[in-house]
Specification:
heterodimer; A: Rossmann fold; 17% strand; B: alpha/beta; Rossmann fold; 7 strands
């Protein structure tokens, strides 16, 4: 199975029965899989007229109480931002997949990580956050997609699985978690199902608050939720950091390249480790405290001009030097290029 | 004492915010009465627009979702696909439906979504203060067509019913008005029929209701009703544009 299909299969296993989307490369295997497989489990696939419509169908279905998914790639995710802001504002659970391609504009269809800012800093208008999960391999893509639905329901918030064309097209062995009973989640006693089913109590899905004091109160409530996420949901991996003099910070595809580069560095006697954020929002700021004492320098590697770099700067807070190596436009950096960056920092090797 | 008239159970007790003389209130009443009389209020889910009717979710006594500007048919699609037995309707103005939401309305109709659209056309953007809409009449003065809408450069009114009637999957498309009591009675018949078709799983139904905007037209309520009769209806002829079942 390709990465895209793994994500789609994991969504169905998680109980997702509704998919609304619009074709765009390099994520088409997701809607194609859903169009093929959802009807077999009593689900519904609708090809929307645009990403704008797709995300609003997601809003409607999520507000009606369903587990719902949409997927797209960078330009399509840009089109969805209005709807994502409404979904966050109305506190609806849903899962979004962004298989990033290179931008800006129509850009190109090759892998990229240049939507980090858009994904983690809001993306649409207003004060809000989307919980962002960044898988680095297909097993993780499956597991994170499945837990994305639980996280969305727990926090009544959109959750994004953020990957790129490389992971979407990759093939690796994967063991899908079995379709499991719903974990202990709050009941959806806010969903619009008709008053006949809710003892006559009207339910309204809305993000309009014309009185500033009410809106401020609403946004504070959203931020209390984000604080809870920051407390409970941060995920990251430390790899060979115990003796590392240089810690590479990378997520998703670039973390795989960093891992290969670290192997090469270790053979050259260079002590290098990896700090890999798995949740991009909430960002694992505290993880840096575990490595900062021993580390001489951090090296941030991204397929962008340096976006996660800003969060690393906040985490390190000027205590250690930070270097950046990025390729963009759809170019994937090689392990050798990363090794050279490490050598420049440590002065080791040929 | 004998009750001769009462507020429909399909409306909440929240006071309407509409301007004096605006016919939104009448249209709300017709929709609410129709849902009650058809016995479906308890399984109705409304989708409110952005525009004058943005607070419709406070007025209809049923579940509701507020949609982004123009997106109500997409939101309604999501709801209806999850709850096929619910009676799902959008309540949209002409800026919402005929301008920013044109793609969503056309494609919901194209898919034959089994939902009902109440389309309130007053030929102007009311909520934002009287700007030109795609439905504004040629020559009509608005704040963004201060010399009157000009055919050249600003085009002529979009006729939604005529356009949607050409789409294969639409079940019922009709234009009505509420400027006289007989017209109002006919409007309610059309709205009820649209909901009945949805209950019978016949597919997409839309009722366009010509409505007044005394505030932004710069007319008294009575003059506004006359303007509908004399100026709007010649451009937007009333009638049934599509009826899969035949008849009216």
């Amino acid at each position: 199975m390709k990465g895209n299909e793994v994500i789609a299969a994991a969504a169905i296993n998680a109980g997702c029965r509704y998919f609304f989307g619009y074709p765009i490369t390099p994520q088409n295997e997701i809607p194609e899989y859903m169009a093929r497989e959802l009807p077999k489990v009593g689900g519904v696939y609708v090809q929307a007229e645009s990403e704008v419509a797709a995300i609003n169908m997601v809003y409607g279905a999520a507000g009606a109480g369903a587990r719902v998914l949409t997927s797209s790639s960078s330009p399509g995710i840009s089109l969805m931002q209005e709807g994502i802001s409404y979904i966050a504002g109305a506190e609806l659970p849903c899962v979004l997949v962004n298989i990033m391609r290179a931008g800006p504009g129509l850009g190109g269809v090759q892998p990229s990580q240049a939507d980090y800012f858009q994904a983690t800093k809001g993306g649409g208008h207003g004060d809000y956050h989307v919980l962002v999960l960044a898988p680095a391999n297909l097993q993780e893509a499956a597991d994170l997609t499945q837990s994305a639905f639980d996280l969305a329901d727990r926090y009544r918030n959109p959750v994004m699985v953020l990957a790129d064309g490389m992971i979407g097209q990759l093939m690796e062995p994967v063991e899908l978690l079995p379709a499991r009973p719903a974990v202990d989640l709050p009941p959806k006693d806010w969903a619009t199902t008709g008053t006949a089913t809710s003892g006559g109590r009207r339910r309204v899905i809305n993000s309009l608050y014309l009185y500033p004091d009410q809106l401020e109160q609403h946004v504070h409530a959203l931020y209390a939720k984000y604080a809870a996420m920051e407390h409970a949901e941060v995920r990251y991996e430390l790899h060979q950091c115990d003796d590392a003099e240089v810690v590479i910070v990378a997520y998703g595809t670039t973390s795989r390249i960093a891992r290969s580069a670290i192997e090469k560095c270790r053979r050259l006697g260079l002590r290098v480790g990896l700090l890999r954020p798995i949740t991009l929002y909430p960002f694992p700021f505290a993880a840096f405290e575990q490595v900062i004492a021993r580390t001489q320098a951090f090296l941030v590697v991204e397929m962008s001009m340096g976006q996660m770099l800003d969060d690393v700067k906040i985490a390190v807070a000027g205590r250690k030097p930070i270097s950046f190596y990025g390729r963009t436009g759809g170019i994937v950096p090689t392990p050798e290029e990363v090794v050279k960056q490490v050598q420049a920092l440590l002065g080791g090797g040929p | 004492m004998k009750t001769v008239y009462e507020k429909s159970a399909g409306l909440t007790d929240v006071p309407l915010h509409y301007c004096p003389g605006c016919t939104h209130g009448i249209i709300h009443k017709l929709v609410a009465e129709s849902l009650v009389e058809l016995g479906v209020l308890g399984r109705a889910i409304a989708v409110a627009p952005v525009g004058c009717a943005v607070f419709a979710y406070d007025y209809f006594n049923c579940d509701a979702q507020e949609a982004a500007h123009g997106r109500a048919p997409a939101v309604a699609t999501g709801i209806k696909r999850v709850h096929p037995d619910a009676i799902v309707f959008t309540y949209q103005g002409d800026g919402d439906l005929a301008s920013i939401g044109m793609a969503e309305i056309v494609h919901a109709a194209m898919r034959g979504e089994n939902l009902t659209v109440i389309f309130v056309n007053n030929a102007i953007y009311g909520m934002t203060g009287g700007q030109m809409a795609p439905t504004t009449l040629v020559g009509q003065r608005t704040t963004t067509s201060p010399l009157g809408r000009s055919r050249s450069g600003q085009g002529a009114p979009l006729r939604i019913c005529e356009m949607l009637a050409t789409i294969e999957a639409t079940a019922y498309v009709a234009r009505v008005s509420v400027h006289t009591v007989p017209r109002l009675t006919a409007a309610k018949r059309a709205i009820k029929k649209a909901f009945q078709l949805q209950m019978d799983n016949k597919g997409f139904s839309l009722v366009e209701v010509l409505s007044t905007c005394p505030t932004n037209w710069g007319l008294s309520p009575v003059e506004a009703l006359r303007w509908v009769e004399q100026t709007m209806i010649p451009v937007y002829p009333l009638g049934v544009y599509k009826d899969l079942e035949g008849g009216t």
